[in-house]
C-alpha cells in the first residue's frame, strides 16, 4: 500500500510522467510492497528533484549510495549493537534492520549530492538535458517572405551570370 500520492505531480508536468513513474514504481517489491524505509519524492525546481528517505538511527558510515546504469541504490546496514554495561534491552521498537531501496532514474538524471539531516537522507537529483535535445524555437515565415528571400539569394548569382 502506498503512503503518498504522486498525482499532483502528474497534473503539473507534461511528458515527464515517466520519471515519476520510474522513481515511484521501482522502490516497491513485486510481492507485498516494500515499506521500509519510507521515502518521499519531491520536485524542487524545473529540473531538480529530491528523494528523502527516513533512516533514523543510521550514521553516514552505515549508509551507502550507488548510481549505476540509471539505477540509484540506497543501502543501510547497522553495526551490531554493543551490550551496554548494566543495561538490558527490554523492547526494540526502533528498526535497525538492513535495507536496500532502488530507484530507476530517467535518462539524463544525475545525482548531485546527499545530506543526512535529523534522521532523513536527502538525495538531490538534477535532469541535465543535452543541448541537442532541448526545445528550440522555429521562426515562421509567410509565403511572401520566403519568395523575397529566394529572390535576394538568386540576385547576386544572376548578376555574375550576366
TrEMBL record:
In terms of superkingdom, the source organism counts as Bacteria
UniProt keywords (A-Z) are: Stress response
Q: Which residues form a coiled coil?
A: none
Q: Which InterPro entries match?
A: A-crystallin/Hsp20_dom, ACD_IbpA/B, HSP20-like_chaperone
Quote the PROSITE patterns the UniProt record gives: SHSP
Q: Which residues form the SHSP domain?
A: 30-143
Does Lipid metabolism count among this protein's keywords? no
TM helices/strands, residue ranges: none
> Is Transferase given among the entry's keywords?
no
Family, similarity comment: Belongs to the small heat shock protein (HSP20) family.
Q: What is the protein name for this chain?
A: Heat-shock protein IbpA
Organism, as annotated: Azorhizobium oxalatiphilum
Amino acid at each position: 500500500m502506498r503512503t503518498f500520492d504522486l498525482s499532483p505531480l502528474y497534473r503539473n508536468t507534461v511528458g515527464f510522467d515517466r520519471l515519476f513513474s520510474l522513481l515511484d514504481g521501482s522502490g516497491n517489491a513485486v510481492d507485498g510492497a516494500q515499506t521500509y524505509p519510507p521515502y518521499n519524492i519531491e520536485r524542487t525546481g524545473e529540473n531538480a528533484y529530491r528523494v528523502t528517505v527516513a533512516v533514523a538511527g543510521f550514521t553516514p558510515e552505515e549508509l551507502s549510495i550507488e548510481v549505476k546504469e540509471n539505477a540509484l541504490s540506497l543501502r543501510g546496514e547497522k553495526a551490531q549493537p554493543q551490550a551496554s554495561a548494566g543495561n538490558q534491552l527490554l523492547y526494540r521498537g526502533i528498526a535497525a534492520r538492513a535495507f536496500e531501496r532502488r530507484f530507476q532514474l530517467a535518462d539524463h538524471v544525475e545525482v548531485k549530492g546527499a545530506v543526512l539531516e535529523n534522521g532523513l537522507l536527502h538525495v538531490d537529483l538534477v535532469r541535465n538535458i543535452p543541448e541537442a535535445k532541448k526545445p528550440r524555437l522555429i521562426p515562421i515565415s509567410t509565403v511572401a517572405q520566403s519568395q523575397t528571400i529566394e529572390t535576394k539569394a538568386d540576385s547576386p548569382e544572376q548578376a555574375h551570370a550576366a
